[in-house]
Amino acid sequence: MVQAASGERINRLYPSQELALLGTRDAKPQRWLLKAEQADGIGIGSPVLYLGLEAGKVKQLRAAKEGVEIELEIDGVYAPLLSQLPQFWKKPALDARVRVDGVQVKVGNLATLLRGAIEFDRLGSGRSSHQLFDSKEQAKANVRSLSLTAESNPGLGIGSPIRYRGVDIGKIEQIELEPSLGQVIFKAELDGHYAGRFLQSGARFTLVQAKLGLGGVAHLDTLIKGAFVEALPGQGAGKDRFPLSQSGQVGLALTLKSPSVNGLSVGSPLLFRKLMVGSVTGVTLARDGSEVLIDVSVDKEYAHLVRANTRFWNVSGVKADIGLTGGTIEVETVQSLLAGGIAFNTPEHDMGATVKAGHSYPLYGKAEKEWLKWSPRIQP
Fold first, then answer.
1. First to last CA, the chain
2. What does 10-36 look like in DSSP terms, one character per residue?
3. Rg of the chain in Å (alpha carbons)
4. Quick one: which of 7, 284, 310, 359 could link to 346 by a disulfide (CB 3.0–4.6 Å)?
5. For residue range 86-100, what is the model confidence (pLDDT) as tens digits?
6. Overall pTM surpassing 0.70 (yes/no)
7. What does the CA dihedral 365, 367, 369, 373 come to, rounded to 10 degrees?
């Protein structure tokens, strides 16, 4: 029994002294809204637990603009805890831990196995009280927020990692357009243990994508796992908003027009003599729907190879010519098989004048034999 400093006596058995001191006679259930990327087994009626005790249940689930919204009803006895901004996380049906002497498996109660469950408590991490985390460890993580800005999304997604020296120190949590529609904002979180060194003036955040060329492939893992952001620490005043830099040199920006996208995407290589000299930077549909516009960037050191009469053609994937007696399979490069690709060549004679940024060309489905024979020598 606990004697409160003030207030009337309440004849009720509370699960803890903390709840007894917070309790009131007319305590009523309270609704609470959580957001999650996906429900993952949580359903209407799934229990909400506090210290292993059922403190409420899931009342409603609905699809949201980004993920799922989960509405909880917390019993009146436990409702005062919500004012302390606790953290919520998914309770696994099976908790498996690998030890030296084998695997230890802890099985949840029957309700957890059948309906899934949510747990909550004050973890002191300062993380959102309206976010449903995947685990208690994630909810406890000490993190700090930052925003990265870019003219367009170059291929990042929710969950894309932020790394330093190959170690994950954060990730992208949300992607949205700023109110004026002028830029894309990437809202991210950094591990609190490292954030202090990176949330300073002078810090840099750079997009890293696969770099494909005759000499090999850099960051091959990004072809499978996706692009990531490489961070470099700063030294200066505190700051939490940074531009997202693009790796590589600024080159000659061109637009290619095609009836279809045909296996191309942002990051697909631009090839000259099967050597990568640029990449695809954007793929959009023309406003009237008549064609696909493919933005490419030719590396600055190779921009002089493009002239008014240059021809571009698609080399994405495998091209097969198979008959009754056999056939041939042609692949331009390994990288074009993996990521799609565009090749180009310029005639030795009548190559035309140099072009400026924004110049457009048709993108052909395949090369004519004559184009493949061109062997120009073009000086910068």
1. 88
2. -----SSHHHHHH--TT---EEEEEEE
3. 29
4. 310
5. 999 998 655 544 443
6. no
7. 180
